[in-house]
Amino acid sequence: MRLNAWIVSFALAGLAAAGPAAAQTYLNSSNITVTVGAGTSPGDFNNTFNNGATITKVIDAPSADAEEFHNQQTHIWYTADSLGGGLELRFDFQTEYDLSVLHFWNYTSEDYDVDSVSFTFYSGANVQVGTLSVAPALGSSPGIRAQDITLAAPLNVRYVTAFLTGSNRQVDFQNIGFTADVSAPIPEPETASLMALGLAGLLLAARWQRRRCSMASGS
Ligand SMILES: [Ca+2]
Ligand SMILES: [Ca+2]
């Protein structure tokens, strides 16, 4: 019984060791990519976009608590045409993450700020794993800091689509960011076999040690 308990705890420890140590990561231009999605409505980027070359301005905050000032180098301003609609962004996190906080740096006045964002989250296999709609607060002024929105999920997210709209067709903001943990991988078959092999070896060693002790005490 005691040995069984020991085996179980050893196996659990082995499983824990098989995954990487959890460490919170701030996702920005150093570890993820963003592009303008095909779902973007006809509209105008008002000279802040450079034909897409500068879209990384929306993921360039160095940390979740960074402060940005509103100028041509830091923000994106998009105006949907008279039919309405919005701006679609597509994020690729490069690997799967469990999301814990959404950070949004909005513009500072109602005339141009983002009024609604609809997120759709996908796994590494491109399977939808969640949606989220937020009405972000106005940005702080003059230095713009992020509004932090705590998320309990989704988990195992690699791709994200964000559709940003303004009630007056104006979409102006500084950054979108996420705080996340790398998702724990499901152990590969090889890893499981290696763990089983290690466990068998350890049991053999323990048995051999017991035999050696009993032989020593018997002599
Ligand atoms: Ca920015
Ligand atoms: Ca607005």
From TrEMBL:
Residues 185-211 form the Ice-binding protein C-terminal domain. InterPro entries: Ice-binding_C. Keywords: Signal. Residues 1-23 form the signal peptide. Pfam families: PEP-CTERM (PF07589). The keyword Signal applies. NCBIfam families: PEP_CTERM. This is PEP-CTERM sorting domain-containing protein. It comes from Pelomonas parva.
